[in-house]
Design brief:
By secondary structure, this protein is an alpha/beta fold. It has a single domain, classed as Rossmann fold. It is 45% helix and 15% strand. The protein is built from six helices and six strands, in the order βαβααβαβαββα. Strands 1, 2, 3, 4, 5 and 6 form a six-stranded parallel sheet that branches. It is globular and about 50 Å long. The structure holds ligand FNR. The site of ligand FNR has 15 residues, from helix 1. It comes from Streptomyces blastmyceticus. This is NAD(P)H-dependent oxidoreductase.
């Protein structure tokens, strides 16, 4: 079966630059022959983590839905903004909820991190911060990351990147990531036989 890749936009707002980047990556993943599930954090509504809520009610439906989506995916691409040089609270909160589920869905999952920002840093510091909880959970975070600076001017009407050199770099990063995931998925299948 083709690989299943979840592409998750981590911003909630309708005009999100990261949602546009997520849509572009989803198209590239599809063109590479994988099955894509494009989603954004707004589909997974959950309260701020509270151990009392967890004790009384268990996991909120939004966290369970995100966990299930992760479980069904061979890999995840996260397109996240940078808030104050770090991970947006909503994304960190979702990671915290999901981390309570067993088997823990982020463990051994391959992840590619991308970001978009109108600034010159492109949200790259946020991605470095995002590596910390993900790697703590055993996620295989791809070494290369992609950050789109000045993203408000970064997309063509067709949804490609305006800078063709940068567009090519993204295409290559996605292809290399998928190749790694595919090789690893095949290896795991062989080992389980
Ligand atoms: C930001 N923004 C921002 N940008 C950046 O490059 N570095 C930063 O540290 C921050 N910090 C920050 C904090 C908060 C609270 C907000 C609301 C915004 C700007 C941010 O990159 C911009 O709003 C993006 O457009 C957000 O991503 P989406 O929603 O377009 O995907």
């Amino acid at each position: 079966p083709p690989m299943d890749v979840l592409v998750l936009g981590a911003s909630l707002r309708a005009g999100s630059l990261n949602a546009r980047l997520a849509a572009l990556v989803a198209r590239l993943v599809q063109e590479a022959g994988a099955t894509v599930h494009l989603a954004h954090m707004g589909e997974f509504v959950m309260p701020v983590y509270d151990g009392d809520i967890e004790a009384a009610e268990g996991l909120p439906p939004g966290a369970l839905a995100l966990s299930e989506r992760l479980r069904l995916s061979d890999a995840v691409v996260i397109a996240s903004p940078e808030y104050n040089a770090s991970v947006p609270g909503g994304l960190k909160n979702a990671i915290d909820w999901v981390s309570r589920i067993r088997p823990q869905p982020f463990k051994d999952k391959h992840a590619l991190l991308v970001s978009a920002s109108p600034s010159l840093v492109g949200g790259n510091r946020g991605l470095w911060a995002l590596r910390v909880p993900l790697e703590h959970l055993g996620t295989r975070v791809y070494p290369d990351m992609f950050s789109l600076a000045q993203a408000h001017e970064g997309f063509t009407d067709g949804g490609d990147l305006t800078d063709s050199g940068l567009h090519e770099r993204l295409v290559e990063a996605v292809a290399a990531f998928l190749q790694l995931v595919e090789a690893d998925t095949r290896y795991v299948c062989l080992r389980r036989r």
